[in-house]
Amino acid sequence: MSAPGLARQLPQDRSRGRKLRRKWLLTVVGYAVALLFFFPILWMLMTAFKSEAAAFTVPPHFFFHPTLASFGEALARGDYLHYALNSLGASLISTALGVLLAVPAAYAMAFYPTRATDGTLLWMISTKFIPAVGVLIPIFLVYKDLSLLDNLWGLILVYTAMNLPIMVWMIYSYFKEIPAEMHEAAQVDGANTAQVMARVVLPVAIPGLASTCLLAIILAWNEAFWSINLTNTAAATLPVFIASFKTAEGLFWAKMSAASALAVAPILVFGWMAQRQLVRGLTFGAVK
Amino acid sequence: MSTATSHVEVSRRRRRSRRRPNMALLLGPSVGFLLLWMIVPLALTLYFSLRHYNLLQPGRRGFVGLHQYGALLADATFWTSLYNTIVLVVACLVLTVVIGLALALLFDSDFFGRGVARTLAISPFFVMPVVTALIWKNMLMHPVYGLFAAIFKAVGLKPVDWLATYPMPSIVAMISWEWVPFALLVLLTGLQSLPAEEIEAASLDGAGAWQKFRFITVPHLGQTIYVVIMLESIFFLTKFAEIYATTSGGPGLATTNLPYLIFLESFFQYDIGTASAIAIFAVILANIVAIFLVRFVASNLAEGAQA
Fold first, then answer.
1. What is the mean pLDDT of chain A?
2. Which of residues 248-277 of A touch B (CB under 8 A)?
3. Tell me, what's the ipTM?
4. What is the DSSP letter of A182?
5. What is the CATH T-level fold of the domain A72-282, as seen in this structure?
6. Are B241 and A224 a contacting pair at CB < 8 A?
7. What mean pLDDT comes out for the span B162-179?
8. Where in the sequence is the domain holding B145, given as residue range(s)?
9. Beta strands in B28-92 (DSSP E)
10. Hey, where are the domains in chain A?
């Protein structure tokens, strides 16, 4: 670089230096805040790798000999897997049912809008705003008569109803992004509704469907109100199992943390994957 | 929806499509399912609320009209729970929106590894509420072994039994920790849709950082903040797991909100009638908020159709 050029660039360099310093400052603040929010999760993960005795040292230790013993104990309590399988079944099957119900409804509303479409869509969303306590008692009593209490299918059906409005809405909004011409072209070729859906609409909407499913799985997996009220042991899910640590075994923190870590980790990863699309689903498209 | 369909296009498509699928077949299952699991139970709740219905008194059943509503309005427990519900909602709203907005502004500015930091910061939203409750109750707020107690002792203060001494603020802290990430995510999405040109133009006009925030960012974010407030209100009105797993509504009634009171009335008092009447109050409360929100979504739908 020649000397005159250098001289001319100096003020620019200074402002660039200021910008860089600002960027570093923001980096430090940003990570400080991020770690502050993440800390309780990190603390739980660390406790999960402690021994029961190490979990209770005063003051708490940040450096310790990690051990997998607590995970082993949590899993060895044979019923952990039982609850985990119930959670898995409830969230996966309710999501699958939700997709089966939501895709045709969203398809009809997205590609064949009528005057009733907006109304139907809004009605579906508004059912999401009925607080669960507003429908708990009748569902509990009817389930009691139908022996659906403490029955995984009973829980699955409630979760399906709980997530259906969000799923219809999200899938509808993804279908709306498919150019009408694409859909028409397939129809002109003489394909029937099922073929159009399977060959044209679904392949394009796969990413959208995937994030819809992720969100539904997250919501069902973390759900506690219904599982606490409708199940006991046979159909109880992980939140019920973990809530049981609140009294009887509240003093086994390492084990509690290990059980919690196993329950939280997969959903955390799903959440990280779906964070962008999540806004669309949870705000019913009001924020894009 | 970025590709909104115009009315012209819709009618053109409607004319052209030869085989319109059977709409009832496509829509029916979803509508029917929601009717059966949401609307019918809601109607039954309303019905039960007008009847004397206690599982422990099978002989005494019958229509009592609005009697149970009247009894509730005269019951201090109900008013305390209603008050707690509103305190919880308002406190969590203020905290999550203010902190969420600050964090959204932070994560909207450019810095190294911003994506990773944002991902860490939103993580609390994905933790199951029961786990949140137990981590906070045992490992953070425990008066002897908790981390807060250790920090207090380290700086020479007396450790506090948070859930016993400040039950409602503790619950509010937990719920806010879970929901700040939601506000952050939604507000960040709103911020990122703010056209960069507007900010640049303001800079050229000599606007300072505060002026840009006050006169460009805030008005632009107004709608987004509105949506966050509405949605969070609906979720906060029905908070249950955090209370169930920590204070069980106590000490006394200090953290009993309407959902928890319904839980107590139906599963401990077996009083289905009274519990249903409380549930109807909870539904009305939620609907006051929901009406505004649904109207907002509806205007968005209409806008989308015209765009």
1. 83
2. 250, 253, 256-257, 260, 263-264, 267-268, 270-272, 275
3. 0.82
4. H
5. MetI-like fold (1.10.3720)
6. yes
7. 92
8. 113-214
9. 51-52, 62-63
10. 3-48, 72-282
